[in-house]
Amino acid sequence: MAAPIKTRERIIQASLELFNAQGERNVTTNHIAAHLGMSPGNLYYYFRNKQAIIAELFNQYECQVDTFLRRPQGRAMTVADKTFYLEALLAAMWYYRFLHRDLEHLLESDAELAAQYRLFSQRCLSHAQAIYQGFVEAGILLMDRQQIEALTLNSWIIMTSWVRFLCTSRGDPGDLSEEMLRRGIYQVLALEGGYIAPSAQAAVQALYQKLYVPLELVIPS
C-alpha cells in the first residue's frame, strides 16, 4: 500500500497544477487551499506565501535541468544524445510550463529568485555550449566557436520564450498541449540545419520527423 502524500508535497503538486492550468497570476494561496480542501492558515504553516511555493517549484525545475543538461564524460557524443536532450527539455518545459509563461513577472516579484535565475541561465548556457562543442568534436555538427556561441544563445531564447509565444498567440494558458511545446523543441533543432555533417544527415532527419508538429496545430488560423 502506497504511503499517503505529505501535506507539503500536496500543496506543491496542487500549486503546480493550478499555475499551469490558469497562469500563476490568476491563482492565490486561497485558491490553492480551497482546491486542497484545507484552511489558508494550514497552508501558511508550510509556506509563508505564494512566492515561497514558487521558489520551491523553481528549485525542483532547476534541479531537473541540472541533472540532464550536461555533456557526457568519457565518450564521444552521438545523435541519440541529441534526442535525449531535446526530449528531456520538452518534459521539463511541459511539467513546469507556468515558469516559462510568467517568467518576467515572477522575477520582477522576487529579487532572490531573479538572482538565482541569472546564475541558472548562465550555467545552462555554459553547459549547452559544451554540449554543442561535443557534437562538433564527434563530427555531427560542423561549426566554429562563434557559431556555437550564437547557436547556444538563439536556442536559449527560443526555449525560454516559446511558452509565452504560444500563450500570446492562443490567449489561453489552459489551452496548451505537450504537442505545441514539441514544436518549440523542433524550432531549436531547426536552427542546426545548416551545420549538420553529411554523415549525420540521415539520423538527424529522422529526428526532425519525430519532432515535427504542423504549424496549424500550434497557431490558430
From TrEMBL:
It comes from the Bacteria. Residues 5-65 form the HTH tetR-type domain. PROSITE patterns: HTH_TETR_2 (PS50977). Pfam families: TetR, TetR_N. The keyword DNA-binding applies. GO terms for molecular function: DNA-binding transcription factor activity; transcription cis-regulatory region binding. Keywords: DNA-binding. The keyword DNA-binding applies. InterPro entries: Homeodomain-like_sf, HTH-type_TetR-like_transc_reg, HTH_TetR, TetR. Residues 28-47 bind DNA. SUPFAM superfamilies: Homeodomain-like. PANTHER family: HTH-TYPE TRANSCRIPTIONAL REGULATOR RUTR (PTHR30055), HTH-TYPE TRANSCRIPTIONAL REGULATOR UIDR (PTHR30055:SF223). This is TetR/AcrR family transcriptional regulator.
